[in-house]
Amino acid sequence: MVNEIKSEIIKEKRSANSKLMLLVPPIFIIFNIMMGILMGESPEGKSYLMATSFNWYPIMVLPIILSLLVININNKEKSYHYILQRSLGLNEQKMLIAKNLVVIMELFIILLLSSIVIFIFGTSILQEEISLNNIILATLALFIGSLPVIGISFIINRFVGKKFFLLLINFLLTFPSAIFAVKKTWVFFPWSYNLRILTPIIKVHPNGTFLEEGSSFLEMNTVYIGIALSIGVYIMSLVILLILKRSKTYD
């Protein structure tokens, strides 16, 4: 398994995903600065930068990033590459798991770098009150809450041949996530998980407004449920992928 992961990492060094990891953090900060300017000065003790970084950004930008990570790592290999792998006796299921793990690592690096940029810019340039502990928790929540979408995207990408369709599907399904995130049915809609998990942590309603003290949306139980669901749905999607791979439906 270690060799498969190393192989995927080597193949990613000069890939589109490696460029994406460098491009996204600057795009992240520019997007949030623009949104912050539109929203005006942050209320005392609150941060519009945090609100846009971990509320609007997951809806408007992250779906595209997740889709591109999955598309790029899958589509860089042609059919003859898979034939070669089989002729060499390589374990295709392990290769599939390795691709998943590398995409997860790439997402984590993107979110980590973006959060560092936001923290430095927000505290030093904008002089906003941003808790380091809060931004660490928010980053981890956003990361874990995005895992189901990665797993589902791998499935969609293999059944839908055109790259554009995965981008479109994730974009369209993420847009209503703010609506689903405030309903009891959010547990059945994986695209709303990261928003719902983030709500008590950043104290921002899924619609983008700051929450008042005593709001039911501040209950931390939601975070634990969301994390468990995110990991569970991701594992389930990976199992489905492996079953499809074994049955050759995946190719």
From TrEMBL:
CDD domains: ABC-2_lan_permease_MutE_EpiE-like (cd21807)
InterPro entries linked to this entry: Lanti_perm_SpaE/MutE/EpiE-like
Superkingdom of origin: Bacteria
Residues forming coiled coils: none
Annotated keywords: Membrane, Transmembrane, Transmembrane helix
Keyword Membrane in record: yes
TM ranges: 20-39, 54-75, 96-123, 135-157, 164-182, 223-244
Name of the protein described by the UniProt record: Lantibiotic protection ABC transporter, permease subunit, MutE/EpiE family
Organismal lineage: Bacteria, Bacillati, Bacillota, Bacilli, Lactobacillales
